[in-house]
Design goal:
Number of domains: 1
Largest sheet: 2 strands, parallel
Distance between the termini: 46 Å
Number of strands: 2
Strand order of the largest sheet: 1-2
Structural class: mainly alpha
Oligomer: single chain
Shape: globular
């Protein structure tokens, strides 16, 4: 099965309000021999590292432009999963969930 995140994360680089340089990030996955095609896919940053869960934003934008995505669709092997390793890890460790607003507030105050 080819696992894809069920929903786009709140901090996904593919969100329209993301300030990250998407072209530069996609260049890291691009197939240099075939323009418009990807040699690999972007893993979801909320999934466990090296878990093989495809980012939902990447899937929506490029599911037909990388080999694993094409094959999984043709063979009906796409499985949509709901994993959030970051949330689960913070809950089990008793930590407060990270919030961008609190970090931005601290940075603007210089603390």
């Amino acid at each position: 099965m080819f696992r894809v995140q069920k929903r786009m994360c709140q901090t996904c680089i593919y969100r329209s309000d993301s300030t990250l340089d998407l072209a530069r990030l996609e260049a890291a996955c691009a197939d240099r021999r075939m323009p418009g095609h990807f040699a690999k896919f972007r893993e979801c940053h909320h999934a466990k590292p090296r878990s093989g869960v495809c980012c939902r934003g990447f899937w929506e934008a490029h599911k037909d432009h990388f080999d694993a995505g094409q094959l999984a669709q043709r063979l009906k092997l796409v499985e949509f999963v709901d994993v959030d390793y970051l949330r689960d890890r913070n809950v089990t460790r008793g930590r407060r969930r990270w919030k961008a607003e609190s970090v931005n507030t601290k940075l603007s105050r210089g603390t």
